[in-house]
């Protein structure tokens, strides 16, 4: 089996991009990480070690630069859902968070400050259309979340992975980085504010 020097998992986010990394951590002949350069030096934003698997949905906005830096011996995984609305709803639930891709897409790209299903579906379509156009002439594999285990086994075999496949599949089946509801988020934030106010009052007595 062929071993690729660089492997990138691309997606619109909220489609198991963390779960697949947890599974890949059971691969012994590749390193793996999720969004490892997101808060690092911008000069090194696209710098990854050899024989590494990187899952980062923000790379979907840097596809031209990614190809320029890694033109050869690179494999791409396109991770997606058949049901786009479920992905859209997951993005919507996280729009209340300050540093959120969907939130910034609405305010910065669309400039309409609306966080509805049409906006979320449009963002997903934009990202996924870009990925589809980008990978069509590159070595790649499309994995749909509805067939996650089957797609991961195919991925494992395609890249010549070594390690414990059973443990990887077990990790793949677990939920990671699940979205909380907007209501839950604001309830928690309000509770923290009240606790902080109480702390300040107690500190003054």
Can you put this structure into words, describing what you see?
Helices cover 47% and strands 12% of the residues. With 205 residues, it is of the alpha/beta class. It has one domain (6-83, 122-204): 3-Layer(aba) Sandwich (Rossmann fold), CATH 3.40.50. Helix 3 packs across helix 5 (117-135). It is globular and about 55 Å long. 34% of the residues are buried.
Which properties best describe this structure?
205 residues, Rossmann fold, five-stranded parallel β-sheet, 8 helices, 47% helix, globular
Secondary-structure arrangement, i.e. CATH architecture = 3-Layer(aba) Sandwich
CATH H-tier superfamily: P-loop containing nucleotide triphosphate hydrolases
State the domain count: 1
List the secondary-structure elements in sequence, H or E. EHEEHEHHHEHHH
- Order of neighbouring strands in the sheet with most strands: 2-3-1-4-5
- Rg value: 19 Å
Instruction: Classify the secondary structure makeup into a structural class.
Output: alpha/beta
Task: Tell me what portion of residues adopts beta-strand conformation.
Answer: 5-15%
Give the CA-CA distance, first to last residue. 70 Å
Q: Tally of extended strands?
A: 5
Described by its quaternary structure, the protein is single chain
* CATH topology heading: Rossmann fold
Can you tell me the CATH class?
Answer: Alpha Beta
Number of helices: 8
Q: Which segments are poorly predicted (pLDDT under 50) over 5 or more consecutive residues?
A: 180-189
Average pLDDT score: 88
Shape estimate: globular
Please bin the fraction of helical residues. Answer: 40-55%
Main beta sheet: 5 strands, parallel
């Amino acid at each position: 089996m062929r071993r690729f020097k660089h492997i990138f998992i691309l997606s619109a986010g909220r489609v198991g991009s963390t779960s697949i990394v947890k599974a890949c951590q059971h691969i012994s002949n590749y390193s793996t990480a999720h969004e490892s350069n997101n808060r690092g030096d911008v000069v090194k934003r696209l710098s990854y070690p050899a024989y590494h698997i990187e899952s980062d949905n923000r790379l979907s906005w840097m596809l031209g630069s990614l190809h320029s830096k890694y033109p050869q011996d690179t494999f791409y995984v396109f991770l997606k859902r058949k049901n786009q609305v479920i992905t859209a709803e997951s993005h919507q639930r996280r729009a209340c968070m300050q540093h959120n891709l969907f939130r910034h897409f609405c305010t910065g790209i669309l400039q309409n400050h609306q966080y509805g299903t049409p906006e979320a579906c449009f963002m997903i379509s934009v990202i996924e259309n870009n990925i589809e156009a980008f990978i069509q002439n590159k070595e790649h594999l499309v994995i749909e979340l509805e067939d996650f285990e089957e797609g991961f086994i195919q991925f494992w075999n395609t890249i010549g992975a070594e390690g414990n496949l059973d443990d990887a599949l077990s990790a793949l089946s677990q939920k990671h980085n699940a979205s909380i509801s907007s209501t839950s988020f604001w309830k928690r934030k309000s509770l923290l504010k009240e606790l902080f106010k109480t702390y300040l009052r107690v500190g003054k007595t």
